[in-house]
Design a protein that fits this description.
10 helices, 3-stranded parallel β-sheet, alpha/beta
């Protein structure tokens, strides 16, 4: 089976600005941080607290960032041990996403029928009701916590095997919204508007910077895949940048415990000496993570949502 391959140089070849958008941390105004020591062997600029600059992952370094399945077994084990990183097989993703849809539609087997580790995709058009329209389904807000490469949102490939998955067989939450739009909208301008709304409705956060980038890339590529499948051509650079901007807001880097950007505490302006040696003084508070409310057209602190405000 075809194996997935994500190459940052391909994005940079299309537009370096597009890659910069995918690396942007909207909360800090800088680039996302590595937030893992897996790359320290490449030098001090690849330390956990350092930003991921575009030039660090393209050119001679284009294969630095790889999906988990492409990493060595030793590295996978280390990330599991250090960050509890364990990726879920797509059949389990499908089962869990089906449970969400079972509750919303108040019936089962809407998108597919499962048989243990496989599923059979339904071929008939998804049916909706006057109370639960396809538009409401597309606008339904959904969040994947500790999202890794975002397999619960988009399933371009199985996160465990690396095998590519055909569009019609994809089972992510955003994949399902896109199927619904594809079934209900044929006008390309209207399709684009609803696709934007679908992307605005799904969120995910992750600590490790390489995963944040991979998740964002997976969402962007899912958009490109669907446009080509639906209309037979790739999206324009402007269209890709619009999606990338949404994705860089909605898939963000965050410490899930503190709800702040990793390593965002301001560096100390001075060093205090003590009889025990040198002590660094911590300065400032870490940056609270912000997300975007697309309907209200404003950014908000993520922690305010957790408080029910």
């Amino acid at each position: 089976m075809e194996k997935i391959d994500i190459i940052e140089q391909h994005i940079a070849n299309r537009s370096l600005d597009l890659l910069k958008i995918l690396l942007k941390d909207k909360s800090t105004g800088k680039y996302i941080k590595w937030a893992t020591d897996n790359y320290c062997y490449m030098g001090s600029t690849y330390a956990a607290d350092q930003e991921i600059f575009p030039e660090m992952i393209i050119g001679d370094f284009t294969n630095v960032v790889q999906p988990r399945v492409s990493k060595s077994q030793k590295e996978q084990t280390k990330r599991t041990r250090d960050k509890a990183e364990v990726f879920t097989p797509t059949w389990i993703v499908n089962e869990q996403n089906n449970l969400l849809d079972d509750a919303w539609f108040e019936k089962s087997d809407v998108f597919n029928c499962t048989d243990r580790t496989s599923w059979l995709t339904t071929t008939e058009k998804i049916a909706f009701t006057p109370d639960k329209t396809w538009q409401k389904y597309v606008d339904l807000k959904q969040l994947e916590i500790s999202c890794g490469e975002a397999p619960y949102l988009v399933t371009r490939y199985d996160a465990v095997t690396g095998n590519a998955i055909e569009i019609k067989e994809r089972v992510g939450l955003l994949d399902r919204k896109m199927r619904v739009i594809n079934e209900n909208v044929d006008n390309e301008i209207e399709w684009e508007l609803w696709i934007l709304r679908a992307f605005q409705s799904v969120y995910g956060y992750e600590f490790q910077g390489d995963n944040v980038l991979l998740a964002r890339e997976n969402l962007l590529y899912t958009y490109c895949d669907n446009m080509y499948e639906k209309f037979g051509h790739e999206p324009t650079l402007l269209q890709q940048k619009k999606i990338a901007n949404i994705v860089s807001w909605n898939i963000w880097q965050m410490d899930g415990i503190t709800m702040t950007a990793p390593y965002s505490r301001r560096k100390p302006e001075y060093i205090q000496l003590s009889i025990f040696g040198t002590e660094e003084q911590e300065g400032g508070n870490p940056t609270s993570c912000r997300i975007f409310d697309w309907r209200a057209n404003c950014s908000i602190e993520f922690r305010t949502m957790m408080k029910g405000n």
